């Protein structure tokens, strides 16, 4: 007799619209014994907020400064043993209305601010000329030691600069001192810095910047600059400029990536706003050339402005040799995106959290509605060398163990920057901007310093596909991976037809599955159809396979059902939870 009770049937599944569900006595007992089934692997271990009255930052910040519009890690600028941070406040009125500033924050080991320096019109040693409305600080990138003086240098976008016509945009190269002040500067725009012709009014050159490594082998890293309103492929399709810099910050050469230049068959559409964010990926595919991530927040796959991220595999000349798109149900990504999420607003590369040899990519979606309208969220993507996603985990007001106070319209994850291991605890830190946070006044802005899980704390569930056909049947092949310290521990793969939030919280941890009849089945009857291999012991590599399998000619009325799965790792004798994974989706198609 099928266990699916509804107007349609399928062995092992029950409809998410089934009648009210009570947890079984077995599950209730397990909650009392050690909470095995309610503990999760959180993305987040800790968080610190920096705002006008939090985290030791004195500012001053004013209303509508949008502090946190951009962030960049500067390494240990002042030599005190702790990493430091640059933060853009693009609507600050220092020197004139909306000229913008950059704050240099000297951090302590806990992520708080020990001291700060303001850089802007007439302050912080900056001698460049800014105009009202330039929005200096629109984007930030650590250039390394460009001029060889032993101190890192900083690229700063000013996307509304009008050297080449209204809002054509510009980038400033700032040569810093160890105290955070500016020793010298060089402007790159339509009329300065050797860029030459090519920018048009409204391009917003400088909306994103990323130092991408040495493409041409001249010993100087190249700078990628986003112009998301470039019109090569139609209005606001977007483009990237690859700039070959001199040690003095001038442009020695350039190339362009757009729908009509340097990227054959790009697939960009008008309105995509490609290159609204950029991130250097290192040599992802192992061909000896750095690769690049680029956000396209206006991409409509999954709904209007749901957003997308492009993984671009570059040649030594800066052209695109291959690409992978990550979007709703595309590129291995199975997370739920909604219209207007603007997935891809920000990007950052953190370390190899899961120990597979590939760094993870963090993607901001600052208009995600978890917890309220435009609260914002970020996604941690576990990539393969091909750029395809093999697992993901969301962090928001309702997911990923985040306990901070996020409010509607905060725009959490408008900006992102990896900070490596700030406090020496073995965890990577991440700076996350929420530029419309209201601490101290409306839209003053804030930056969160998040401590991410260690490699051994980051089990990942990944798959070969995000869909299974009802008519043809098929398998979603699943792989469970954890840190090496969990080899030999038992695991249990659980499922839900009722999405991932709010999930279960037991023993202070969150499991990203909602209890329902399918959850009950996977809990009480492991390895029952449609799951194969859902209970067992992790092998010597701390891995295990499983699958979600449907027979041919399954009921077509199930089309559109989405199942989520996550696994738990525990100690067999004590029932102590060791870790749990992200939730991974599979969609049932006709």
Please give a structural write-up.
The protein has 590 residues and is mainly beta. It folds into two domains: 45-452, Methylamine Dehydrogenase, Chain H, CATH 2.130.10; 459-588, Sandwich (Immunoglobulin-like), CATH 2.60.40. It has two helices and 36 strands. The strands form nine sheets. Strands 26, 28, 32, 34, 35 and 36 form a six-stranded mixed β-sheet that branches. A hairpin with an 8-residue loop joins strand 6 (136-144) and strand 7. The longest helix has 9 residues, at 25-33.
In terms of structural class, how would the helical and strand content be classed? mainly beta
Straight-line distance between termini: 23 Å
Overall pLDDT metric: 88
Strand content: 35-45%
Oligomer: single chain
- Per CATH, what is the topology of the largest domain? Methylamine Dehydrogenase, Chain H
The CATH superfamily of the largest domain appears as: Integrin alpha, N-terminal
CATH class of the largest domain: Mainly Beta
Total helices: the number is 2
Radius of gyration of CA atoms, rounded to a whole number: 24 Å
Helix percent reads under 10%
As for the number of domains, it is: 2
Which CATH architecture of the largest domain is right? Answer: 7 Propeller
What about the largest sheet? 6 strands, mixed
């Amino acid at each position: 007799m099928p266990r699916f009770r509804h107007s349609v049937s399928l062995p092992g599944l029950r409809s998410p619209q089934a009648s009210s569900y009570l947890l079984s006595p077995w599950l209730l007992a397990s909650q009392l014994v050690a909470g095995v089934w309610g503990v999760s692997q959180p993305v987040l271990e800790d968080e610190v907020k920096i705002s006008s009255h939090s985290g030791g930052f004195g500012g001053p910040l004013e209303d509508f400064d949008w502090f946190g519009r951009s962030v960049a890690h500067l390494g240990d600028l002042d030599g005190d043993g702790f990493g430091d941070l640059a933060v853009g406040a693009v609507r600050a009125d220092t020197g004139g209305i909306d000229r913008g500033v950059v704050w240099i924050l000297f951090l302590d080991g806990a992520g708080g601010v020990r001291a700060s320096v303001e850089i802007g019109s007439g302050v912080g040693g900056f001698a460049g000329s800014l105009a009202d409305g330039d929005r200096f600080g629109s984007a930030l990138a650590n250039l390394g030691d460009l001029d060889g003086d032993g101190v890192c240098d900083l690229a700063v976008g000013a996307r509304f600069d009008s050297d080449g016509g209204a809002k054509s945009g510009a980038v400033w190269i700032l040569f810093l001192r160890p105290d955070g002040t500016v020793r010298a500067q060089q402007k790159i725009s339509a009329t300065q810095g050797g860029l030459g012709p090519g920018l048009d009014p409204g391009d917003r050159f400088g909306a994103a910047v990323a130092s991408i490594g040495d493409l041409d082998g001249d010993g100087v890293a190249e700078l990628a600059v986003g112009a998301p309103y470039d019109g090569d492929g139609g209005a606001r399709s977007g483009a990237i400029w690859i700039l070959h810099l001199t040690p003095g910050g001038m442009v020695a050469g350039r190339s362009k990536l757009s729908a009509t230049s340097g990227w054959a068959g790009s697939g960009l559409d008008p309105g995509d706003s490609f290159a609204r964010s950029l991130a250097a990926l290192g040599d992802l595919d192992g061909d000896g050339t750095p690769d690049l991530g680029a956000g396209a927040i206006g991409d409509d796959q999954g709904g209007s402005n749901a957003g997308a991220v492009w993984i671009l595999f570059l040649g030594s000349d800066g052209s695109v040799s291959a690409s992978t798109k990550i979007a709703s149900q595309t590129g291995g990504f199975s997370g739920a995106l909604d219209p207007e999420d603007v997935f891809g607003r920000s990007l950052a590369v953190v370390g190899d959290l899961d120990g597979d040899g590939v760094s993870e990519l963090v993607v901001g979606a600052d208009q995600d509605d978890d917890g309220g309208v435009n609260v914002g969220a970020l996604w941690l993507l576990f990539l393969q060398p091909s750029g395809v996603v093999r697992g993901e985990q969301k962090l928001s007001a309702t997911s990923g163990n985040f306990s901070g106070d996020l409010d509607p319209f905060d725009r959490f994850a408008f900006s992102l920057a990896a900070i490596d291991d700030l406090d020496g605890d073995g965890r990577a830190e991440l700076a996350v901007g929420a530029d419309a946070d209201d601490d101290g006044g409306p839209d003053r802005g804030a930056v969160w310093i998040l401590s991410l899980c260690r490699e051994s704390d980051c089990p990942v569930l990944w798959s070969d596909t995000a869909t299974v056909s009802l008519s043809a049947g098929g398998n979603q092949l699943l792989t469970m991976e954890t840190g090496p310290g969990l080899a030999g521990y038992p695991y249990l793969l659980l499922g839900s037809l009722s999405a991932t939030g709010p999930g279960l919280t037991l023993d202070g941890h969150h499991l990203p599955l909602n209890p329902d009849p399918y959850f009950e089945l996977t809990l009480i009857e492991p390895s029952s159809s449609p799951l194969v291999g859902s209970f067992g012991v992790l092998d010597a590599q701390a891995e295990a396979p499983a699958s979600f399998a449907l027979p041919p000619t399954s009921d077509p009325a199930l089309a559109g059902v989405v199942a989520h799965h996550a696994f738990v790792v525990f100690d067999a004798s004590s029932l102590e939870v060791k870790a749990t994974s992200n939730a991974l989706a599979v969609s049932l198609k006709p």
